[in-house]
Amino acid sequence: MKACAPGKLILSGEHSAVYGAPAIALAVNRYIRCHSTFTSTNDLTLHLPEAGWQAQMSWSELRFLNDNLNQRFAQFEQGELGAGNILEAPQQLALYALCQCLPDNDPDTGLTLEIRSELPLGSGMGSSAALSAAVTCLAQELFSTSLDTAALFQRVRYCERLCHGRGGLIDAATVSYGGMVKVAEGAVTQLPVQLASGWYYIHTGVPAVGTGECVDYVRGRFADAPIWQRFATLTEQLREAIVAGDDPRPLIQQNHRLLCQIGVVPAPVQHFISHLERLGGAAKVSGAGAVAGDFGGALIAYLPGIDVDAACQSAGFRYMAIEEDREGARLEN
Hints:
The chain has helices at 59-77, 91-99, 127-143, 149-164, 169-177, 211-222, 227-244, 249-261, 267-278, 308-315, and strands spanning 2-12, 23-39, 44-48, 53-57, 110-117, 180-184, 187-191, 199-203, 282-285, 298-302, 318-321, 330-332. It is an alpha+beta fold and 333 residues long. It has two domains: 2-192, Ribosomal Protein S5, domain 2 (2-Layer Sandwich), CATH 3.30.230.10; 199-321, 2-Layer Sandwich (Alpha-Beta Plaits). The strands form two sheets. Strands 1, 2, 3, 4, 5, 6, 7 and 12 form an eight-stranded mixed β-sheet that branches. Strands 9-10-8-11 form a four-stranded antiparallel β-sheet. A hairpin with a 4-residue loop joins strand 3 (44-48) and strand 4. The radius of gyration is 20 Å and the shape is globular. The relative contact order is 0.19.
Protein backbone atom coordinates (compact mmCIF):
# COMPACT_ATOMS: atom_id res chain seq x y z
CA MET A 1 0.00 0.00 0.00
CA LYS A 2 1.21 3.50 -0.81
CA ALA A 3 0.43 7.05 0.31
CA CYS A 4 1.80 10.50 -0.42
CA ALA A 5 1.54 14.05 0.87
CA PRO A 6 2.56 17.26 -0.93
CA GLY A 7 4.94 19.95 0.17
CA LYS A 8 3.77 23.47 0.82
CA LEU A 9 4.85 27.05 0.33
CA ILE A 10 3.57 30.00 2.34
CA LEU A 11 2.50 32.93 0.21
CA SER A 12 1.99 35.22 3.19
CA GLY A 13 1.56 35.00 6.95
CA GLU A 14 4.51 33.04 8.30
CA HIS A 15 5.29 34.19 11.83
CA SER A 16 2.32 36.57 11.94
CA ALA A 17 -0.08 33.60 12.05
CA VAL A 18 1.30 32.86 15.52
CA TYR A 19 -0.28 36.14 16.65
CA GLY A 20 -3.71 35.62 15.12
CA ALA A 21 -3.09 37.10 11.67
CA PRO A 22 -4.29 35.17 8.60
CA ALA A 23 -1.95 33.13 6.42
CA ILE A 24 -2.18 31.87 2.84
CA ALA A 25 -0.29 28.81 1.62
CA LEU A 26 -0.18 26.54 -1.41
CA ALA A 27 0.34 22.79 -1.73
CA VAL A 28 2.92 22.00 -4.42
CA ASN A 29 3.64 18.90 -6.46
CA ARG A 30 6.71 17.70 -4.60
CA TYR A 31 5.98 14.81 -2.28
CA ILE A 32 6.87 12.55 0.57
CA ARG A 33 5.84 9.00 -0.29
CA CYS A 34 5.37 5.99 1.98
CA HIS A 35 5.19 2.35 0.90
CA SER A 36 4.20 -0.43 3.31
CA THR A 37 4.55 -4.19 3.18
CA PHE A 38 3.25 -6.64 5.77
CA THR A 39 5.80 -9.22 6.93
CA SER A 40 5.85 -12.35 9.10
CA THR A 41 8.47 -11.00 11.55
CA ASN A 42 5.95 -9.39 13.95
CA ASP A 43 7.99 -6.19 14.24
CA LEU A 44 8.46 -2.90 12.45
CA THR A 45 11.19 -1.95 9.99
CA LEU A 46 11.50 1.70 8.97
CA HIS A 47 13.64 2.33 5.90
CA LEU A 48 14.76 5.72 4.54
CA PRO A 49 16.82 4.78 1.47
CA GLU A 50 17.88 8.30 0.53
CA ALA A 51 19.37 8.87 3.99
CA GLY A 52 20.89 5.38 4.12
CA TRP A 53 18.98 4.79 7.36
CA GLN A 54 17.12 1.71 8.56
CA ALA A 55 15.84 0.68 11.99
CA GLN A 56 13.95 -2.31 13.33
CA MET A 57 11.93 -2.46 16.53
CA SER A 58 9.10 -4.36 18.16
CA TRP A 59 5.62 -2.91 18.51
CA SER A 60 6.18 -2.55 22.25
CA GLU A 61 9.39 -0.60 21.58
CA LEU A 62 7.43 1.68 19.26
CA ARG A 63 4.90 2.37 22.02
CA PHE A 64 7.77 3.06 24.43
CA LEU A 65 9.21 5.59 21.97
CA ASN A 66 5.78 7.22 21.71
CA ASP A 67 5.57 7.59 25.49
CA ASN A 68 9.11 8.94 25.66
CA LEU A 69 8.38 11.60 23.03
CA ASN A 70 5.24 12.65 24.92
CA GLN A 71 7.39 12.99 28.02
CA ARG A 72 9.96 15.08 26.15
CA PHE A 73 7.18 17.36 24.92
CA ALA A 74 6.05 17.80 28.51
CA GLN A 75 9.64 18.74 29.39
CA PHE A 76 9.53 21.35 26.63
CA GLU A 77 6.30 22.78 28.04
CA GLN A 78 8.00 23.04 31.44
CA GLY A 79 10.95 24.92 29.94
CA GLU A 80 13.38 22.01 30.38
CA LEU A 81 13.90 21.36 26.64
CA GLY A 82 14.15 23.65 23.63
CA ALA A 83 11.65 23.31 20.79
CA GLY A 84 14.35 21.91 18.52
CA ASN A 85 15.32 19.20 21.00
CA ILE A 86 12.02 17.37 21.50
CA LEU A 87 12.79 14.97 18.66
CA GLU A 88 16.18 13.31 18.95
CA ALA A 89 16.17 12.31 15.26
CA PRO A 90 13.88 13.35 12.35
CA GLN A 91 12.76 9.78 11.67
CA GLN A 92 11.16 9.65 15.11
CA LEU A 93 8.35 11.80 13.73
CA ALA A 94 7.40 9.05 11.26
CA LEU A 95 7.40 6.47 14.05
CA TYR A 96 5.31 8.72 16.29
CA ALA A 97 2.72 9.32 13.54
CA LEU A 98 2.54 5.58 12.93
CA CYS A 99 2.00 4.86 16.61
CA GLN A 100 -0.99 7.23 16.80
CA CYS A 101 -2.80 4.90 14.40
CA LEU A 102 -2.13 1.58 16.16
CA PRO A 103 -5.04 -0.37 17.66
CA ASP A 104 -5.07 -0.99 21.40
CA ASN A 105 -3.53 -4.42 20.93
CA ASP A 106 -0.29 -4.88 19.05
CA PRO A 107 -0.71 -6.01 15.43
CA ASP A 108 -0.19 -9.73 14.90
CA THR A 109 1.96 -9.08 11.86
CA GLY A 110 5.14 -7.26 10.98
CA LEU A 111 5.42 -4.17 8.79
CA THR A 112 8.10 -2.67 6.60
CA LEU A 113 7.65 1.05 5.97
CA GLU A 114 9.77 2.73 3.30
CA ILE A 115 9.78 6.53 3.04
CA ARG A 116 11.12 8.61 0.17
CA SER A 117 11.11 12.39 -0.02
CA GLU A 118 11.32 15.03 -2.71
CA LEU A 119 11.25 17.77 -0.06
CA PRO A 120 14.47 19.20 1.39
CA LEU A 121 14.46 19.10 5.19
CA GLY A 122 14.30 22.38 7.06
CA SER A 123 13.73 24.47 3.96
CA GLY A 124 10.23 25.85 4.30
CA MET A 125 8.40 23.23 2.25
CA GLY A 126 6.57 21.57 5.14
CA SER A 127 8.54 18.33 5.15
CA SER A 128 7.58 17.43 8.72
CA ALA A 129 3.86 18.02 8.10
CA ALA A 130 4.00 16.08 4.82
CA LEU A 131 5.79 13.20 6.54
CA SER A 132 3.17 13.08 9.30
CA ALA A 133 0.34 13.26 6.77
CA ALA A 134 1.69 10.55 4.45
CA VAL A 135 2.40 8.12 7.31
CA THR A 136 -0.99 8.83 8.91
CA CYS A 137 -2.89 8.27 5.65
CA LEU A 138 -1.14 4.96 5.18
CA ALA A 139 -1.34 3.75 8.78
CA GLN A 140 -5.00 4.64 9.19
CA GLU A 141 -5.82 2.50 6.19
CA LEU A 142 -3.67 -0.35 7.50
CA PHE A 143 -4.88 -0.41 11.09
CA SER A 144 -8.10 1.54 11.42
CA THR A 145 -10.81 3.49 9.62
CA SER A 146 -9.50 6.22 7.33
CA LEU A 147 -9.69 9.76 8.68
CA ASP A 148 -11.60 12.43 6.81
CA THR A 149 -9.59 15.49 5.79
CA ALA A 150 -10.54 17.58 8.80
CA ALA A 151 -9.51 14.81 11.21
CA LEU A 152 -6.32 14.17 9.27
CA PHE A 153 -5.45 17.86 9.57
CA GLN A 154 -5.87 17.74 13.34
CA ARG A 155 -3.78 14.55 13.61
CA VAL A 156 -0.97 16.04 11.54
CA ARG A 157 -1.04 19.17 13.66
CA TYR A 158 -0.81 17.07 16.81
CA CYS A 159 2.18 15.11 15.53
CA GLU A 160 3.97 18.17 14.23
CA ARG A 161 4.03 19.81 17.64
CA LEU A 162 7.06 17.60 18.35
CA CYS A 163 9.03 19.42 15.64
CA HIS A 164 8.39 23.03 16.56
CA GLY A 165 6.94 22.97 20.06
CA ARG A 166 3.50 23.75 18.70
CA GLY A 167 1.15 22.21 16.14
CA GLY A 168 1.17 24.78 13.37
CA LEU A 169 -2.05 25.38 11.45
CA ILE A 170 -0.52 26.40 8.13
CA ASP A 171 1.60 23.39 7.24
CA ALA A 172 -0.86 20.81 8.55
CA ALA A 173 -3.80 22.40 6.73
CA THR A 174 -2.03 22.81 3.41
CA VAL A 175 -0.59 19.30 3.11
CA SER A 176 -3.88 17.76 4.29
CA TYR A 177 -6.32 19.71 2.12
CA GLY A 178 -4.19 20.52 -0.93
CA GLY A 179 -4.61 23.51 -3.20
CA MET A 180 -4.50 27.04 -1.84
CA VAL A 181 -5.72 27.51 1.71
CA LYS A 182 -6.29 30.42 4.05
CA VAL A 183 -5.90 29.91 7.78
CA ALA A 184 -7.36 32.48 10.16
CA GLU A 185 -8.44 32.29 13.80
CA GLY A 186 -8.09 28.52 13.85
CA ALA A 187 -10.29 27.98 10.78
CA VAL A 188 -9.19 26.59 7.42
CA THR A 189 -10.71 27.85 4.17
CA GLN A 190 -9.89 26.42 0.75
CA LEU A 191 -9.51 29.15 -1.87
CA PRO A 192 -10.89 28.25 -5.32
CA VAL A 193 -8.08 29.98 -7.22
CA GLN A 194 -4.81 28.97 -8.84
CA LEU A 195 -1.59 30.89 -9.23
CA ALA A 196 -0.81 32.26 -12.67
CA SER A 197 2.52 31.53 -14.35
CA GLY A 198 5.67 33.30 -13.26
CA TRP A 199 5.80 31.96 -9.68
CA TYR A 200 8.93 30.11 -8.48
CA TYR A 201 10.32 28.32 -5.47
CA ILE A 202 13.98 29.12 -4.79
CA HIS A 203 16.03 27.13 -2.28
CA THR A 204 18.64 29.36 -0.62
CA GLY A 205 20.13 26.62 1.57
CA VAL A 206 19.16 24.86 4.79
CA PRO A 207 18.91 27.35 7.68
CA ALA A 208 21.35 27.06 10.56
CA VAL A 209 18.46 27.10 13.07
CA GLY A 210 15.08 25.40 13.14
CA THR A 211 11.56 26.76 13.01
CA GLY A 212 11.13 26.54 16.78
CA GLU A 213 14.21 28.65 17.44
CA CYS A 214 13.08 31.27 14.91
CA VAL A 215 9.61 31.47 16.42
CA ASP A 216 11.08 31.84 19.91
CA TYR A 217 13.47 34.57 18.73
CA VAL A 218 10.68 36.59 17.13
CA ARG A 219 8.36 36.10 20.08
CA GLY A 220 10.98 37.44 22.47
CA ARG A 221 11.29 40.68 20.49
CA PHE A 222 7.96 41.32 18.78
CA ALA A 223 5.24 39.40 20.64
CA ASP A 224 3.35 42.57 21.61
CA ALA A 225 4.39 44.74 18.67
CA PRO A 226 1.81 46.33 16.31
CA ILE A 227 3.66 44.94 13.28
CA TRP A 228 1.36 41.90 13.09
CA GLN A 229 -1.57 44.01 11.97
CA ARG A 230 0.54 45.21 9.06
CA PHE A 231 1.26 41.59 8.14
CA ALA A 232 -2.47 40.79 8.39
CA THR A 233 -3.39 43.65 6.07
CA LEU A 234 -0.80 42.60 3.49
CA THR A 235 -1.99 38.99 3.57
CA GLU A 236 -5.57 40.01 2.83
CA GLN A 237 -4.42 42.36 0.08
CA LEU A 238 -2.35 39.59 -1.50
CA ARG A 239 -5.29 37.20 -1.41
CA GLU A 240 -7.45 39.80 -3.13
CA ALA A 241 -4.75 40.44 -5.76
CA ILE A 242 -4.38 36.73 -6.55
CA VAL A 243 -8.15 36.27 -6.86
CA ALA A 244 -8.44 39.33 -9.10
CA GLY A 245 -5.37 38.46 -11.19
CA ASP A 246 -3.63 41.72 -10.22
CA ASP A 247 0.15 42.25 -10.08
CA PRO A 248 1.31 40.93 -6.66
CA ARG A 249 4.87 42.32 -6.78
CA PRO A 250 4.37 45.46 -4.64
CA LEU A 251 2.70 43.39 -1.91
CA ILE A 252 5.41 40.71 -1.96
CA GLN A 253 8.07 43.40 -1.69
CA GLN A 254 6.34 45.00 1.29
CA ASN A 255 5.99 41.59 2.93
CA HIS A 256 9.70 40.95 2.45
CA ARG A 257 10.59 44.20 4.18
CA LEU A 258 8.44 43.33 7.17
CA LEU A 259 10.15 39.93 7.42
CA CYS A 260 13.51 41.71 7.35
CA GLN A 261 12.28 43.97 10.14
CA ILE A 262 11.57 41.02 12.45
CA GLY A 263 15.00 39.59 11.69
CA VAL A 264 14.32 36.32 9.84
CA VAL A 265 15.98 37.11 6.48
CA PRO A 266 19.78 36.57 6.48
CA ALA A 267 21.86 39.31 4.84
CA PRO A 268 22.97 37.22 1.80
CA VAL A 269 19.33 36.36 1.11
CA GLN A 270 18.38 40.03 1.38
CA HIS A 271 21.07 40.88 -1.18
CA PHE A 272 19.77 38.20 -3.56
CA ILE A 273 16.17 39.44 -3.25
CA SER A 274 17.36 43.01 -3.91
CA HIS A 275 18.96 41.72 -7.12
CA LEU A 276 15.67 40.10 -8.16
CA GLU A 277 13.83 43.35 -7.48
CA ARG A 278 16.27 45.28 -9.67
CA LEU A 279 15.45 42.78 -12.43
CA GLY A 280 11.76 43.60 -12.02
CA GLY A 281 10.68 40.72 -9.76
CA ALA A 282 9.71 40.17 -6.16
CA ALA A 283 10.52 37.48 -3.60
CA LYS A 284 10.18 36.75 0.09
CA VAL A 285 11.07 34.05 2.59
CA SER A 286 8.43 31.32 2.62
CA GLY A 287 8.55 29.70 6.04
CA ALA A 288 10.37 30.50 9.25
CA GLY A 289 13.46 31.91 7.53
CA ALA A 290 16.53 32.05 9.76
CA VAL A 291 17.76 34.19 12.65
CA ALA A 292 21.39 33.03 12.28
CA GLY A 293 23.67 31.96 9.45
CA ASP A 294 23.58 32.80 5.75
CA PHE A 295 20.80 30.54 4.47
CA GLY A 296 17.08 31.27 4.62
CA GLY A 297 15.46 28.10 3.34
CA ALA A 298 12.65 28.61 0.85
CA LEU A 299 11.81 31.73 -1.09
CA ILE A 300 8.61 32.23 -3.02
CA ALA A 301 9.18 34.54 -5.98
CA TYR A 302 7.11 36.17 -8.70
CA LEU A 303 9.47 36.63 -11.66
CA PRO A 304 7.53 37.00 -14.93
CA GLY A 305 9.76 37.63 -17.93
CA ILE A 306 12.98 37.23 -15.89
CA ASP A 307 15.84 34.82 -16.66
CA VAL A 308 15.42 32.86 -13.44
CA ASP A 309 18.07 30.31 -14.38
CA ALA A 310 20.76 32.94 -14.76
CA ALA A 311 19.78 34.73 -11.54
CA CYS A 312 19.81 31.55 -9.47
CA GLN A 313 22.95 30.11 -11.03
CA SER A 314 24.90 33.25 -10.17
CA ALA A 315 23.84 32.82 -6.51
CA GLY A 316 24.27 29.04 -6.44
CA PHE A 317 20.58 28.48 -5.60
CA ARG A 318 18.27 25.75 -6.87
CA TYR A 319 14.79 26.66 -8.13
CA MET A 320 11.65 25.26 -9.70
CA ALA A 321 8.53 26.65 -11.28
CA ILE A 322 5.65 26.25 -8.82
CA GLU A 323 3.05 23.67 -9.79
CA GLU A 324 0.07 23.23 -7.51
CA ASP A 325 -1.17 20.01 -5.92
CA ARG A 326 -4.97 20.10 -5.61
CA GLU A 327 -5.58 16.82 -3.74
CA GLY A 328 -3.53 16.92 -0.55
CA ALA A 329 -2.43 13.82 1.38
CA ARG A 330 -3.87 10.62 -0.06
CA LEU A 331 -3.48 6.94 -0.81
CA GLU A 332 -1.86 6.05 -4.12
CA ASN A 333 -2.36 3.11 -6.46
